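pinned: reference chain
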Amino acid sequence: MMYTRHWAPTLLSLSGVAILAGAGATVEPPVAPDRAAYDKVVRAALDHLRLRGQAADGSFSAELGPGVTAVVITGALETGRVTPNEPWIAGGLKYLETFVKPDGGIYESRHDNYTTSVALMAFAAANKDGRYNTLIAGAQKFIKGLQWDESDGTSQDNPAYGGIGYDSKKRADLSNTQIAMEALVRSGIDSKDESLQKALRFLSQCQNLPSEHNRQEFALKASDDDRGGSIYTPVGKGESKAGESPGGGLRSYGSMSYAGLKSMIYAALDKKDPRVAAAVDWARRHWSVAENPGMGQVGVYYYYQTLAKALDVLGEDLFVDSKGVRHAWRVELFEELARRQRPDGSWVNPADRWYEGDANLVTGYVLMALSHLKPAPARAK
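pinned: its structure tokens
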């Protein structure tokens, strides 16, 4: 389905009266999607998950681990269109509870941090009456315990310091660190908390920005095109899923660059800080809702939810790219997602990597993104 951009006509509405814009007048675009169109897309997605995606035990794509169920339940609750007491949501939460471990983690036998983090977001979103307080506290403690820091002998000059991997034995990476930070913030941890401030050191190590915060070789070799963006991990020789640049640096790419940006803001880094400013500049140079910059269609739905979260916390309703074009990013992203929605209400990525061939996971990602695109009177122009 296609939705036309709402700022194409030169017809304005002031106090309910439509007038024709005069020559040279600037027509401000709406900064949020049309409510009826938005509701239709969200409802179709929720209906697909409820009627066709869920197994009898409350799970979604259990063969991939409980993390998919956590993504779906989190995405659904964050839309505000369902409640924790609806049978299919309650069933998903009950299924996730079966994976709570004595150490506070919520996982199976893989992806301990990632699964715990997304499950923590699900339980935090469902915790309207305090029923999950103990579970939430346990999960927060577990996640903090996975962080590479002094407790395991990691010094502050180690690029892994402050980062988190899939579990306590895995190398730290930005994907795991950013989801852990988001889960901690969404479940009530203050942005000035020591764990988030330690993570900020790791975020700086992931950024293609040579400074007093990062003197690693890949940052020093960063091209002008990559400067300000982020890579997957700085540990060892560093790694970028987008590969190397011609000059021997590591390429920045969309999903990690927006993940880094939002995480800096979660850790209360000021927008005027050179690290945040450089990350925003990278985003302005690589603006796209058509692809995951640097990766094409690979990981594009993961990219969409990190982009939506990052721009939401950045607080710019109109995002200006490096060419000076102002983008009503909520509208543009919504229209792209609406165009990609399948007739059954789901989404799936034909460029199947990182499980994006699974409709439940990808539809959960999209609901997460859509929750940051909500039409609201304060955003309507």
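why pinned: The chain has one domain: 11-379. Strands lie at 11-14, 17-20, 318-320, 326-328.
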